[in-house]
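Lab notebook, page 48
Experiment: co-folding of the full assembly
Goal: obtain a model of how the components sit together before planning crosslinking
Operator: M.T.
Materials (sequences as entered):
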Amino acid sequence: MNNSSNKNAALGKKKRGKFNFVDATLILILLLVIAALIYVFSPISLIKNMMLSQEKTIEYTILVTDVEIDSLEKFEEQVSLIDSVNKGTLGTVTTIKADTHTEYTPVKDTNKDGEEVYVMKKIEYPDKYDVLITVRTTADYIKDQGYTVGSTRIAVGEKMNLKFPNYVCSGYCESISVF
Amino acid sequence: MKNKENKEASLKGGIRIKAIDVVIIILIILSLVGVYFRYNILDELTSRKNIKDYYVPFEITNIKETTMSYFDVGDKVVIAEDSTDFGYLTTASEDVNNALLPNVPTVPYISPEGKLFNLAYPEDARKNATGRLICRGSYSDENGFLLNGTRPITPGQTIEVHTEDVTVVIKITDKVTEVTGT
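Observation: model returned without errors.
Model output:
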């Protein structure tokens, strides 16, 4: 009896450490299925990005319109610009250029025949400014997808939420150039 | 005695596969085949059977001339909402080589005197532009154009799209026409 129980214990010990081919196959199939699902259903997945992305130095401009004159001094050069929504760094501000805000507005005029007509004319608003911010950074570039800095897409026409050390505003990307 | 020998033989290294394990593996393989069949073969047989290239005409309003310069023929266009491939930019019409054809926008304006004027923006102002995409999809009179055979794209619809360099909202202006000679 004692001899038999010793044998069983020995068998149990050996069984615990045994490599089970079927379990390993099942685990392998499951891992493959999970990897395939991630790859297929996430087109901008990390795997693809890691394979395709390359770093490029870019300089882009952002136009912020309708800025009050008192706020102009809060747009600083040589500071790190932050995305005010996702808190990621967007790059270093290299230049700030402010111009008087202009808008096309219907204005009364007289045509060749002396008739009163209305035409669209560019009108300056002296108490408001349009600020063009130039930012330089290293961006991740993927062909056909474009440039991203952190999780922020940098593209002409893209709305950008900006945070300077002492000012928050939003504007639209105006241009991109690659170095 | 025989039983004991079997146990020892299996412990010594022979791979023992239970019937239930085989059944599970077969079921998993069958389910994978089922998924493949659903997403590839059925789509080919049903919604994708008439997939062809179509011209999709669109308009962009209030765009700067500098922004227009970032559009090139051959640029890949994706739908911003879910990064679905939309198509490729082609020439704005058969007669031009550019991806976009600008036109000076006009706006209706009622003067303080109550007169209606149709005001044109100056040449250096923002413009409207028209263009065409080549998209893969199917078209039928009942369903209209379905991008990739599944997603409806209809005239009047506005869609935010990305190219490599630009984010812009386009408005589909007209019915699609089939690309011939490809």
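Interpretation: Residues 82 and 171 of chain B are 18 Å apart (CA to CA).
Next step: discuss with group before ordering constructs.
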